[in-house]
């Protein structure tokens, strides 16, 4: 739904249209609040009207934090849906360093942190895949392969308003079960005044001062300039434009402890049974703990169902989680972003309003990574098993053994480009009918380049480690990690181009708004919308990308490479805020501590120098990033076409002595998905005896294959607001919502399973099944949503709101066998494939949300927001959870009995809390902010079927500003003031997987306004 204001004097229905109860609000309050709430031009017109009628009324100008909170209260009060919003008096005045941080100040919103800042946003504790994001009423794209939006891509200084719709009406674009996040940029004529602004913020990160950063200096900056102007002509025409540009060049310091992730095949539940010497930590010979001495490899705890017992094969056997490695990572970082926002508004007459807007953002993130890696899976007989100490969930607390150690490094860069364009034409046909046409284009492109290097020890060294308060600490016997000559074995470099993605949405929308102005109904709204989403991820020689790899054996040449590229360890005090002292302790054979090699550093090298030297050592080697290609088995090409139509009635009347308002309507959504993939070309060859064989074509070509799916959904909605008294409001909403599967999960990769008995005489005998990934026929997750709220508004600075909500989901994730048709050798053959589908299971979410704001006369004010939610939704881990499969006849069989409890809704947090204490007097304005989010399950983009938990965290922020005069203001802002790290657990909570230490981020700025 477009948030654009109406431009005529007749009463218009909108999300923030003033209700009849607004007539009692004091003129000063209208002047102080409604002028910044451009969501409703009607509010602006009422303000102007009141000013004309009562010219002697004193207008009290409210600015800063107080004004922002007043606007939030006004937005919530005047909406017909459950909405929380944030607006600024002027472009550039949103009180946050990013859109993510701005959204976090809204009750019920929380973020997922990456690189120390807010990125993906959850609403009411529900993950971003259940939300939708619109910019100026249009869908926004991203480069992640999912439907969330990386809000760090958009500068808050160039966004005018943000709002979160927690209930929906029929006019809104479908896609948000948890809610819809709406961003709006300035519309020049509606802005109504000339404004030139400039701002420069210097960035200083204390943790960066300890880093010798080859990519970025200690000080960074972000500079913003914006200009808005309007021109009126004698013939009644008017033109307005706005222009904003921002350049950001900062560092994003990050120190890490890492374990192997569960997204691949490098983290295992290894058996920890002293009576079993064939595998696990007590194996009779040295080897990887997930491998058997006599038997199969890559086994570990076996969750497969034993048909004789009906239990897992390894049922009741103790185990411990161990990955292929545990490591420390030091980062040199750089984050550059250029953004341009532009808008042009033309009103040739009172009947026409034409708006064009564009948003352009180019962001490049770079990291020089230096890793110290301890390989971990190998069990040393008589040492590892007897000395192993674990916690209740199998997380290791103490480990001993012999393994290799590596000094590794990566040079990483990610470039992401966003382009958004929109054209909106509104025509007032007559006093009753308005027609609105909207055309939109949004595209995000992403590309990642990476160099990965490795130098390792020639032999296996003895070491142990103990879990500290936050991270492990290692003790090494007779091994100095700062001596680069210890890492001369098996030098290797990999040069990758990967995750090359394009995500594009093209849409058109035609709406009408008809003024009824009789009885209880005010307007009838309706419209149609068509859109086409396309997502392409290019494949290569290494799945989702391409790789060139070069190696160099041990010897003098390897030592020359290492010594020639060696650099001093780039950081002092590495991980000091989360460690219990030295992360490495070097001891001799008698246990005496050796100074060299003891501390928090290791031997490092310049990554590009290392890679180029290793490439040069290979005859004919060329250092270059490989290309990706479209016609490749790793390519994902998804097109999603959607057609939607809606009809909605708005009402505003008096009943039983109370003013009531709201809307009800129906939205119908039809979606068709087409997915293209590629597989090797095969020829069907018949032997002299008539036996068929499938032979890969010698032409080297690939066959283009196509799959798809479709669905039609009906989305009714109803919203009711009761103005119970002048300061008490009751609200209710019911709607049916839908959340579509991520585009990356709608791919179509298929390969054939063959009968190898050499007896097949027909195609149906030869081909027995299909392996593959991606399901373009994945159905959306549907829900019924119910909201009820009590809201008390004692004055324009105060609110107490309490909401109860209930969501009933229909749909979970399960493996199911279906039949798909393929053309092979000119014949159509129907084959079974087992894939992930959306099932018909029902689950519930019950939640409570409350907001409180109050300001004292001495200038001190407070604001609190809290959300509690509980759910019975279950998300099973695909490797160590309970796994079921449903055959083509609908019969369900359990395949695995898991050892980990299921996760909840992806991104679900039970508790979300935000608070703000502010003080504003005269030109001085300061605020302290605290934000808390309890633990949640965060899927991986690359493999969203494995459980990863982000631990609960509370983050402090602070900002202050002083208005020197009407033109100049100085600002100071701090993010993550007390250096709260991000901690993650793999498979189960308390199995530590990763700790990211960001440190605080400080900004000092000077702004100019004319």
From TrEMBL:
The keyword Membrane applies. Residues 456-977 form the TonB-dependent receptor-like beta-barrel domain. Its main location: membrane. Residues 287-314 are annotated as: Disordered. The keyword Transcription does not apply. PANTHER family: PLUG DOMAIN-CONTAINING PROTEIN, TONB-DEPENDENT RECEPTOR-LIKE BETA-BARREL DOMAIN-CONTAINING PROTEIN. Belongs to the TonB-dependent receptor family. This is TonB-dependent receptor.
């Amino acid at each position: 739904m477009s948030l654009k204001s109406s431009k005529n004097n007749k009463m218009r229905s909108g999300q923030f249209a003033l209700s009849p109860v607004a007539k009692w609000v004091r003129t000063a309050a209208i002047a102080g609040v409604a002028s910044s709430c451009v969501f409703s031009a009607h509010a602006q017109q009422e303000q102007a009207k009141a000013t004309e009628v009562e010219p002697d009324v004193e207008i009290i100008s409210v600015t800063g934090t107080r004004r922002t909170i007043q606007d939030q209260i006004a937005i919530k009060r005047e909406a017909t849906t459950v909405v929380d919003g944030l607006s600024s008096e002027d472009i550039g005045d949103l009180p946050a360093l990013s859109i993510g941080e701005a959204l976090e100040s809204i009750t019920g919103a929380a973020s997922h942190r990456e690189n120390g800042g807010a990125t993906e946003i959850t609403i009411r504790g529900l993950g971003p895949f259940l939300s939708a994001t619109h910019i100026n009423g249009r869908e926004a794209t991203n480069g992640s392969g999912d439907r969330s939006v990386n809000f760090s891509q958009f500068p808050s200084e160039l966004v005018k308003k943000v709002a979160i719709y927690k209930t929906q009406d029929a006019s809104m674009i479908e896609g948000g079960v948890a809610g819809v996040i709406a961003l709006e940029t300035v519309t020049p004529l509606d802005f109504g005044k000339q404004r030139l602004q400039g701002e420069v913020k210097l960035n200083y990160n204390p943790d960066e001062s300890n880093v010798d950063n080859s990519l970025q200096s200690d000080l960074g900056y972000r500079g913003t300039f914006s200009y808005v102007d309007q021109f009126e002509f004698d013939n009644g025409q008017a033109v307005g434009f706005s222009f904003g540009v921002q350049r950001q060049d900062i560092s994003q310091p990050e120190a890490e402890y890492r374990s192997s992730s569960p997204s691949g095949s490098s983290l295992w539940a290894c058996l920890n049974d002293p009576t079993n010497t064939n595998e696990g930590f007590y194996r009779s010979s040295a080897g990887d703990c997930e491998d058997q001495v006599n038997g199969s490899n890559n086994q570990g705890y076996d969750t497969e169902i034993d048909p004789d017992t009906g239990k897992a094969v390894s049922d009741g056997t103790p185990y411990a989680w161990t990955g292929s490695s545990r490591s420390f990572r030091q980062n040199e970082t750089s984050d550059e972003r250029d953004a341009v926002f532009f808008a042009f508004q033309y009103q040739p007459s009172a009947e026409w309003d034409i708006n064009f807007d564009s948003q352009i953002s180019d962001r490049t993130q770079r990291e020089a990574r230096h890793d110290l890696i301890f390989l971990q899976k190998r069990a040393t007989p008589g040492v590892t098993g007897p000395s192993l100490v674990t916690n209740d969930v199998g997380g290791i607390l103490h480990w001993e053994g012999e393994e290799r150690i590596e000094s590794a490094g990566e040079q990483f860069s990610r470039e992401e480009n966003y382009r958004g364009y929109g054209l909106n034409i509104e025509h007032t046909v007559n006093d009753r009918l308005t027609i609105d046409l909207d055309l939109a284009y949004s595209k995000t492109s992403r590309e990642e380049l990476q160099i990965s290097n490795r130098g390792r020890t020639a032999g296996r060294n003895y070491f142990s480690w103990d879990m500290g308060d936050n991270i492990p600490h290692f003790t090494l016997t007779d091994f100095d990690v700062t001596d680069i000559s210890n890492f001369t074995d098996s030098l290797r470099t990999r040069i990758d181009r990967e995750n090359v993605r394009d995500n594009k949405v093209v849409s058109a929308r035609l709406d009408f708004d008809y003024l009824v102005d009789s009885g209880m109904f005010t307007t009838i709204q309706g419209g149609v919308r068509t859109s086409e989403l396309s997502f392409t991820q290019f494949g290569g020689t290494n799945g989702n990308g391409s790789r060139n790899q070069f190696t160099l054996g041990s010897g003098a040449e390897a030592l020359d490479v290492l010594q020639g590229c060696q650099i001093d360890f780039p950081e002092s005090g590495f991980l000091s805020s989360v460690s219990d002292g030295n992360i490495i302790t070097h001891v001799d054979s008698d246990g005496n501590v050796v100074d060299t090699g003891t501390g928090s550093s290791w031997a490092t090298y310049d990554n590009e120098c290392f890679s180029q030297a290793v490439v040069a050592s290979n005859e004919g080697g060329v250092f270059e990033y490989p290309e990706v290609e479209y016609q490749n088995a790793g390519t994902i090409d998804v097109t999603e076409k959607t057609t939607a139509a809606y009809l909605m009635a708005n009402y505003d009347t008096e009943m039983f002595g109370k003013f009531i308002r709201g809307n009800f309507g129906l939205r119908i959504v039809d979606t068709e998905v087409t997915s293209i993939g590629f597989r090797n070309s095969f020829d069907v060859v018949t032997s002299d005896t008539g036996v068929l064989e499938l032979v890969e074509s010698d032409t080297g070509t690939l066959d283009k294959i196509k799959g798809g799916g479709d669905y039609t959904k009906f989305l009714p909605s109803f919203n009711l607001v009761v103005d119970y008294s002048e300061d008490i409001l009751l609200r209710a909403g019911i709607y049916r919502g839908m959340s579509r599967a991520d585009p990356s999960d709608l791919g179509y990769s298929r390969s054939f399973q063959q009968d190898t008995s050499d007896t097949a005489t027909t195609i149906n005998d030869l081909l027995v099944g299909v392996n593959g990934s991606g399901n373009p026929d994945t159905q959306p997750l549907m829900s019924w949503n119910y909201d009820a709220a009590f809201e008390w508004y004692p004055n324009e600075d105060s609110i107490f709101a309490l909401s109860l909500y209930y969501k009933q989901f229909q749909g979970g994730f399960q493996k199911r066998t279906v039949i798909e048709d393929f053309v092979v050798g000119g014949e159509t053959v129907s084959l079974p494939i087992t894939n992930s589908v959306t099932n018909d299971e029902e689950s519930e979410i019950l939640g409570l949300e409350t907001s409180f704001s109050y300001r004292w006369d001495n200038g001190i004010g407070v604001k609190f927001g809290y959300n509690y939610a509980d759910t019975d939704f279950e998300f099973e881990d695909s490797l160590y959870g309970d796994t079921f499969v449903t055959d083509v006849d609908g019969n369900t069989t359990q395949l695995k009995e898991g050892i980990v409890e299921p996760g909840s809704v992806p991104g679900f947090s039970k508790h979300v809390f935000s608070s703000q204490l502010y003080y504003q007097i005269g030109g001085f304005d300061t605020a302290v902010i605290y934000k808390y989010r309890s633990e949640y399950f965060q899927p991986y983009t690359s493999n969203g079927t494995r459980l990863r938990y982000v631990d609960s965290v509370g983050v402090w922020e602070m900002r202050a500003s002083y208005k020197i005069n009407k033109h100049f203001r100085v600002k100071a802002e701090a993010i993550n003031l007390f250096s709260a790290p991000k901690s993650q657990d793999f498979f189960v909570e308390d199995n530590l997987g990763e700790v990211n230490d960001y440190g605080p981020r400080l900004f000092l700025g000077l702004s100019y306004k004319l």
